[in-house]
Design goal:
Layout (H helix, E strand, L loop, with lengths): L2 H4 L3 E7 L2 E8 L2 E5 L1 E3 L1 E2 L9 H7 L4 E3 L1 H6 L3 H6 L3 H5 L5 E3 L3 H7 L3 E3 L4 E4 L6 E4 L1 H11 L3 E3 L11 H21 L6 E6 L5 H12 L5 E4 L8 H11 L9 E3 L5 H9 L4 E3 L2 H7 L2 E4 L2 E4 L19 H5 L2 H10 L2 H27 L3 H13 L13
Parallel strand pairs: 4-15, 5-6, 6-7, 7-11, 11-12, 12-13, 13-14, 14-15
Antiparallel strand pairs: 1-2, 2-3, 8-9, 9-10, 16-17
């Protein structure tokens, strides 16, 4: 018997409090968790080469079903050998279902029990996505982890709207599972429920009643006060199945990641490190730095003295500010290299601390540094 097939697809290696050090096996390789996934929305992590992403220590990337379906088209990508070959990434890929983009980018849409008809934000052309269509798109792309099609409500929403949406999401999950025929891909279900703890728990029970390789918390980072998300994730993380990967979608800042790992979450994705980099905001071990500030115009010191990335090793704050203020392409490159390296290092140190049973000390170290000088209007107690 094949030794690889005998191994559990998800294995917890150590646990320190609620924080988990685990390993997820996929058709294209192993994902060491806790892990942050860089977002390659349109089959590229903006300003970065795939080889650079791998060298930094990222195991898995996220691709976007909605955008790739619209352009260049999932059927074309399939003809060209699948998303891995198309974008020259040999590691695992997770694709979202397209639900979030359908409900956030497409203003003209009609939703029924069958699915959603919408107009493309690119050219206004009509499209239709259902659970079955979403599964077909993601299977055409060849993703290792496929997300069930769900409805992601905008914030705020009434309890009645949330309840109706949760029930629809559950019915769509059952259809997603039925339509999922790619045996070497892992289907994850998405827990919804807005900002109501009782509805979140109800959705968790609904979704986890369906036996799946993994589960995700969706519907966060949609404009809600950040402290609400922190509180709900702290309550919900430990309630998710212990023997399956736990994925928090669309989150977030270094502070968000640390608090969520402390609540038992294993996987994350967010456009923040690359988007903020292009906008001149950089994450350091001393807090955020807005490189456009005049005070850095003659600063010869590196961006972060504690960072060994290419940017910090070779360039000064003054040079990074000059590039940004001049609108140079190299600004996006160097800033993205740093932010992604910072996120990768944060996850690596988190994994090491959990393995060594020193998570509590590392968590306090991070919270002390990230809450200080943080732009987030929330103070997090060290005993989170």
């Amino acid at each position: 018997m094949d030794e690889k097939k005998c191994r559990a697809p998800f294995e917890i290696l150590n646990q320190d409090g609620q924080a988990r050090r685990a390993r997820l096996r996929t058709a294209h390789g192993v994902v060491e968790t806790p892990h942050f996934m860089p977002v390659g929305t349109k089959a590229t992590v903006k300003a970065m080469l795939p080889e650079e992403i791998k060298t930094m220590g990222f195991d898995i990337l996220l691709g976007n079903t909605y955008h790739l379906h619209l352009r260049p088209g999932d059927e074309l990508i399939k003809q060209l050998g699948g998303l891995h070959k198309f974008m020259n990434w040999q590691g695992p890929i997770l694709t979202d279902s397209g639900g979030f983009q359908v409900f956030s980018l497409s203003q003209l849409r009609t939703m029924t029990e069958d699915g959603v008809e919408f107009r493309s934000h690119l050219d206004g052309a009509k499209y239709f996505i259902s659970p079955e269509v979403s599964m077909k798109i993601q299977m055409n792309l060849g993703a290792d982890i496929i997300m069930a099609f769900d409805e992601c409500l905008q914030y705020p929403a009434t309890r009645e709207q949330i309840q109706k949406s949760m029930d629809l999401t559950h019915r769509w999950l059952l259809r997603s599972k039925e339509a999922m025929t790619k045996e070497d891909s892992l289907l994850f279900g998405i827990i919804q429920g807005g900002l109501e703890l009782d509805l979140r728990k109800y959705s968790l029970e609904q979704v986890t009643s369906v036996d799946l390789p993994g589960y995700a918390l969706g519907g966060f980072s949609v404009g809600e006060p950040i402290e609400f998300m922190h509180a709900l994730v702290k309550d919900l993380g430990p309630l998710m199945p212990k023997n399956k990967p736990r994925y928090l979608m669309g989150v977030g800042t270094p502070l968000d990641l640390i608090l969520s790992i402390d609540s038992g979450i294993d996987m994350f994705d967010c456009v923040m490190p690359t988007r903020m980099a292009r906008n001149g905001t950089l994450f350091t071990w001393s807090g955020r730095v807005s490189i456009k500030r005049r005070e850095y115009s003659s600063d010869s010191s590196p961006l972060d003295a504690e960072c060994d990335c290419y940017t910090c090793t070779n360039y000064s704050k003054a040079y990074l500010r000059h590039l940004f203020m001049s609108g140079e392409i190299l600004s996006a490159r160097l800033n993205s290299i740093h932010n992604l390296h910072f996120y990768s290092t944060l996850m690596k140190r988190a994994r090491e601390s959990i393995s060594n049973n020193t998570w509590t000390e590392f968590k306090k170290y991070c919270l002390t540094r990230f809450v200080k000088n943080s732009e987030e209007a929330v103070q997090v107690p060290l005993n989170h």
